[in-house]
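#dry-run=false #mode=assembly
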Amino acid sequence: MLIIDCPNCGPRPETEYGYGGQAHVAYPEDPHALTDEEWAQYLFYRDNPKGDYAERWVHSAGCRKWFNAVRDTRTYEISAVYRTGETRSETQKGA
Amino acid sequence: MAADQTRRIDAGGAIDRSTPVELVVDGTTLTGFAGDTVASALVANGRLRVGDSIYRGRPRGILSAGVEEPNAFVLVHGDHDESMLPATTLELVPGLDVRLLDGIGVLDQKPDPAEYDKMHVHADVAVVGAGPAGLAAARAAAATGARVVLLEQDFRLGGSLLASPAEVVEGVPAAQWVEQVRAELEAAPEVRVLIRTTAFGSYDNNHLIAVEKRAEHLDGTARDGIPRQRIWHVTAAQVVLATGAFERPIVFADNDVPGVMLASSVTTYVRRYAALPGREAVVVTTNDSGYAAAHALLEAGASVQVLDARDEGASPVVASAAQAAGLRVRTGCAVVGIDGDASVEGAWVARIDAEGALVGDAERVVCDLVAVSGGWTPNVSLHSQRQGALHWDDDLAGFVPTAAVRNQHLAGAVRGTYWTDGCRAEGDAAGVAAASAAGFSAASRSTVIGADAVAEERVARAGRTRQLWVVEGREGGYATHFVDLQRDNTAADVLRATGAGMRSVEHVKRYTSISTGVDQGRIGAVNTIGLLTRVLSGDDTRAIPPGQPGQDETASGPAAGAARPTPGAIGNTTFRAPFTPVAFAALAGRSRGDLFDAARTTSIHPWHEAHGALFEDVGQWKRPWYYPRPGEDIDAAVARECRAAREGVAFMDATTLGKIEIRGADAGEFLNRLYTNAFKKLAVGKARYGVMCKPDGMVFDDGVVLRLAEDRYFATTTTGGAARVLEWLEEWSQTEWPDLDVVCTSVTEQWSTIAVVGPRSREVIARMAPDLDVTREGFGFMEFRETVLASGIPARICRITFSGELAFEINVPTWYGLQVWEDVAEAGADFDITPYGTETMHVLRAEKAYPIVGQDTDGTVTPQDLGMSWIVSTTKDFVGNRSYSRSSHRAADRKQLVSVLPLDRSLRLPEGAQLVEPGALGDYTGEGLPSRPIPMLGHVTSSYHSQALGRSFGLALVKAGRDRIGQTLIASFEGRFAEVEVADAVLYDKEGARRDG
Amino acid sequence: MTMTAPEDTTVEVAAHVPPVDRARVLALRRSPAQGLDEEMRRGSGAAARLREVPFLTQVAIRATPGRDGSLTETLGLDLPTHVGEVAGAGDGNGLAVLWLSPDEFLAVGPDEAESGVSPEAYAGGLAEALGSERGQAVDVSANRTTLELSGSRARSVLEKSCELDLHPRVFPVGAAVATLLGSTGVILWRTGEDTWRVMPRASFATHVVRWLLDGMREYR
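#status=ok
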């Protein structure tokens, strides 16, 4: 079980959170300007790295806020959490 | 009473001789003492033999004195029989009645009346294991004021010290030292000591899971209110693993005969339990530790002969102690076979060469006990569960941790530290380090030796272990050279696996089943790996994929040409939780029966119960399904309820709908972006039905939205969608459009909602709300009013329909829900107002083809597929819109919602029934599987009997369904076929004439 | 600290009902755990006791601290600023504002029968005080009920299904958080050394009462 450090509420068990997939995949500015293939990329394609992965979580049972976390997919260690809208700083990028 | 304890040693042992305890074993009553285990009571009564082996039916005996036991399993008779408990860890308590098992248990089919529970605790430092290392660590951490949890699986603290009570620790006998530390820990306010508690799982973020066996239940009797077992969830800033080590047996012919016992366990029986396993003993060892058993036996009056497999014999200190004690020691020798079937009658002893093969003839030595020590394996399970690194230490002849996991510490035998002062010193250092890392500091206890010195001394203290992986027998073959006793696997099985081409230790495990028993390889895993080093070449091991725990990181195996790989070239199988077996009941805890899951009820629930409703689970909600009157079945009740709604008046508890208040200057814009239809221009006081889609264009939820004020909306969601819709709104507001001035609050449970439905509903509402103009002109469809009911209760009343009939929904604060429901019942009594449940609701809405999200849709259905193109705006953009121009969304053969009418008007199709073209069945008769795939056109999503139409009907998703209206298709279900006609989805009141009453 | 309705607030609902009748209306309320009184009484013992504190006034507030119009003035309290913080009556005796997120709060005050202030009117006043600022004040008094678990083993009862650290070092008296109790979302508020408020949503009240009572049996 993970303990995730909510940027607002501090460390809480994984059961309090919802998972939101890869972070920093913005809704396209103008979806209609995209080709079908580009739109399909947005809808269905996500990275699957071995190592650090920036992903979204929502603290469903707590503050109900979405935020981002950088998790190592090999070890499940979370090296950084930061609020939505904040950029991941160099120090948060982990090893 | 103790007269029958023929093998009880006269003095000593951590047993209470003043408290005899009776034990029934297979119907025979024995006695032991408080402080015994079932196994030690058996030993004290001269019984080493237990149940037979699982597959080969060979007699087996007690092999160990702990959790690694592979033979001595019992079933404890109780209110609920519990199987496969190792006799070696089962504490002797009054009333215990056990049956010896032949390697396999039987799950009791009776319900288990005992209770199980869970507890979540947090600690600064959690220490696993209460031997000298763990006790020292807990003491050191506790002294800093840190919150400490000490977990010990035994019912006594002390670990290895329990088998050496006279050993001097910090100037006092070990038994006294343990008591001192225990008193110190128990006096500390922030320390929790849990005995009978096995940490069986170690998870991310130092989350340990342990199971505690409560003393009150050891005799198998359930106690009201007191859990039989408790699962402890321990979250610790720092963890100290002081989990000790397991002794390995030696693989020789007939090494499973009762009377062959691990040497350290012999010591434990003699010194901890004052029980003598044998009077004439042979100790066979590959290392110095075996000598302790010889000394213990000798002091207890047994005759002993030591066979040391090492040509050079023991380390000087150990050798001179043996000499001083007068022990007979033969070096370069081993037991090569056992005489006896049901008990050891003699051991065949011979000189062995470097390969473990006999040199010259074997000699028969009369004995009744063979104590074996094949070396030690650090208990790294919890360390390795966290992917803690291991490596093969050729000097210590074991897999040892390379470094502790982050925020963890290792102390004692788990690191290969095999002497008490070393363990204690390491424990002390680990406790201080752990507390300090958790923010609590204190000076380390002054110690004779420091932790660094321990590391330097470790190998010298352990002495050399001969890596003797197999001893040849007097005859050829390895069919009785047991490797995994519980699984009845031998060295021959390992050879069979390698002969079949298995190279990876994981493959060998699965080919043979070695390490899959209760002891999870504690007895056999390393010996198996050792055997593999004897039969695989360096070239073989280079073919083994890397990544096993303890496997060398560099290209595995020695250089080409080297004859023999090391165990490190092979590695271990993966360690997984649970460390020891855990009952499912314990994992379930109190989440069973009525408390299995939260049952959500509305404020009106007591009325539904009092009026005989049957309930349907909708998510966690308990919703009235229908209200049968005496003599009615579901069909009769639902027909009556439907008739009331279509012809008179009926009412339903609609409280479970999700409700969200949305406010902000941009609230309209926000809703415009998330619903397929427009809400920005909705007039205050009006309501509109809306559909929400995911970006892929698929229907996600639906509901009615009210505009309360210029900047306030009130959205309803499906019953099951309340939480996810709110999360969805928050997601877009927070992550994509934070610039929009909009906020949302869930008010699902603030409001009770009562739907009043049917041609006479207007009259009921008029009585309920005398201030309200309920006329057709005064209160239009899809409008709402704030009012005060005749009772004085403020209410919001909407004119919304989910049946096509004239209908109203009364919303009142939940506190008033029951009162208002009762008032509605009274106001409608002379119209025979009828309560209805979800079944009738479904029939009414299906007749009108109002879809249920999640029943008629499944995440692959668009509004257009549902025949609801009218709700998809073409003048504004919204989430999902882009997808409607994708080719897949415009395909002609998309599945569309239609109704299906069975030609047999009484046939109710099962939901999920498949629909196919007539003729597509070929020769398929419905028996078994068709000879070739039959193309499916779609499936039935909803199916009911319509009271209004006087026939059965269904809704279905069918490829190009709307083009098929009028066609006959075949429904295939449960091996049967039925003809159905495809029809327009809306079957009742197509013109919508009824909604205004 | 007391809860008062803003004087300049006119609330349509209250206007319809003469004050004399309000008591009669309030008598029609049924609290979510009302039918469980006897079960709770029987399940309580010296070490752990459970009761419902019904009909507390609760207002869900969404607001950005510092940009909340005259909200804090109307409340008479500053909005709490961090997780766990409760502004005002941390012991639950009076008006308290619980932090739920950086822009979400729950104001909790006495029952209308005690304060004479209707929740609708109170929420309406707060909404008005917010003015045109981004935010919300919504009456959610009936959305949750309040259970009070007290006694020397109250913390142990909670630890059976609450995964948070309830040690006073971490969870002091006067702190409140939104979390899970078993699988059920609750607001957990420590109002005294051995006294906790557990606030489930109304539909979960029966389950949470029975769940807590089941955990209390060991300490009876």
